[in-house]
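Morning F.,

Quick status update on the modeling queue. The single chain you submitted on Monday has been processed. Sequence for confirmation:
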Amino acid sequence: MVNKKITALFVTLMLMISAIAVPVSAQTAGEPTVVGKLAIIEKAIYGTTQTGALTDRINKVEEEVYGSKTQEALLPRVDNLYVHVLETTEHAPSVLTKLNAVEWTLTHRVSDNPIKVRVEKLETIMNGSPATGSVDSRLGKLLKLAYTDGQFEVIATKVPKDTLVKIKTLSTLNSKQSKVGDTVALGIAEDVTIDGVLVFPQGASGIGKILKVQSAKNFGRDAKLDISFDNIRATDGSTVATILGEKAKAETKSLAKAAGASVAGMIILGPVGIIGGAFINGKEANIPIGSQLYIQTQEDAEVYGIRVK
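Structure tokens below.
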């Protein structure tokens, strides 16, 4: 009995080592490990990394996505899941791209919730209640509601440098409470299409961070927040680097003028990549949730979009 327990423990340990110790030939610089990939998949599906033994976690995700477990070694199982859920080609859109296509077609926006939550919400909207079964099968049914024969066109599209994107803040930003290094949640406020291909859907997320905080001082010196706008999510789920460049600053000023008021509460645009919020002299800076402005893509990028026109 003791020998059997030792053998079982040894087998489990070897499985974990084989999963974690990925050969150099199987990795590229910056590519996540098998454990890292599994965590990314779990966050995409459930919103958080799951707990438990590695094999149990893989089994759970496979049953959630495919409807059954596969019998391969741990590393290829995770690799296959990662590609299936998150990586798109013109001939094989990922689960995330399919979900974005369905949600945008049915609601004209996408959300940043976990995949499982989004599928359940769409099923409730269309059918009155969530369905059962694998993500693949349920998504297939939703695709048939959104598209003829459940098919949509995926197009590899070049997004030129300096493409403008209208965004809104999803975090409350205040010179008294915000700290350097804080994450700033962003959302795309309007669809961006290129030649009839949706590349940045309304509702997709973006990320920035607080670079500098200066509180209001005596003698009417303004408070200031410096914020970077680092990236946004494309239709295929990939991230595209962004900045607040000269083109975006000019468009934001035009937006403020057209609205008859300043954007984000009297924003004064600072250097490229940074936005400085200066408000009433000697008062604290406050940028409320929902404040809108433009940013622009930092470099040329290629993403997979969906044909909408």
